[in-house]
Amino acid sequence: MDLQAEEGEGLTTASLPVLVATAVPVERDAVAQALPGAFEELRLPGGSLLRTAAGFDLLAAGVGPALAAAGTAGALTAAALAGRPYGLVVSAGIGGGFLPQAPVGSLVVADAITAADLGAETADGFLPVTELGFGTVTHRPPDSLVRVASEATGARTGTVLTVSTVTGTAARAAALRARHPGALAEGMEGFGVAEAAAAHGVPVLEIRAVSNPVGPRDRAAWRIGDALAALTEGFGKLAPALESWNTHDQ
């Protein structure tokens, strides 16, 4: 089925669907396991998404902020043209956690979605793009949305950093924490998803299940399966809370 052939008649603010953007299909499928009912695959330029009768569309947009932004923007545009605009965008997936606040297997909900390496290196240290006189480096989800998501899932709230290069040394982990004291986790897509959502005037949320500590790269210590299971469990609790927020709290 072609998404742009969908009709949006009868949609109201209270029934606007939710777009969930992940990086890769395994994360998308972990979210899908938490949602009831059958899924329908819908074509999009450059890919496809899964739609459930529960009002959630699931998109594996690709790895990194650029693909995440492009894929999310494409889905938002197609939905708007079809007369079925989204009421909320969620960036979901697994990522690294800063110890001890975000241990492996825990959930983190972003109260700030920050591009950690968008800027310039100078002799005096890193300068974010905002200090160069343009752009933005942080998107903040609505406070009420963060609160609802945290209460529903038991997740900690804090800054989730978006990086283009996964942290693999203690020195870089320390530098990130020094620049972003409120950081709990890092991922590679949240800021890109948030940029697309902001361009369409749609609120955004980011949730991460922690698969590994941020720091020295040690694949043997990664617990991807545990993190995916935590993502499924967490989204099972999150989905009804998001539906309620999307309907009543905006």
Main structural class: alpha/beta
Distance between the termini: 31 Å
Count of DSSP-assigned helices: 6
Uncertain runs with pLDDT below 50, 5 residues or more? Answer: 1-14
Strand content: 25-35%
Oligomeric composition of the shown chains: single chain
Average pLDDT across residues?
A: 90
Describe the biggest sheet?
5 strands, mixed, barrel
Outline = globular
Order of helices and strands: EHEEEHEEEEEHEHEHEH
> Taking strands numbered 1, 2, ... along the chain, how are they ordered across the largest sheet?
5-11-10-6-12
Q: What is the strand tally? A: 12
State the helicity in percent bands.
Answer: 25-40%
Q: What is the alpha-carbon Rg in Å? A: 17 Å
InterPro entries: FL_hydrolase_MqnB (IPR019963), Nucleoside_phosphorylase_d (IPR000845), Nucleoside_phosphorylase_sf (IPR035994)
Protein name: Futalosine hydrolase
Organism: Streptomyces bangladeshensis
Catalytic activity: futalosine + H2O = dehypoxanthine futalosine + hypoxanthine
Give a structural overview.
There is one protein chain. This protein has 250 residues and is of the alpha/beta class. 32% of the residues lie in helices and 29% in strands. It has six helices and twelve strands. A five-stranded mixed β-barrel has the order 5-11-10-6-12, surrounded by four helices. Strands 7-8 form a two-stranded antiparallel ribbon. Catalyzes the hydrolysis of futalosine (FL) to dehypoxanthine futalosine (DHFL) and hypoxanthine, a step in the biosynthesis of menaquinone (MK, vitamin K2).
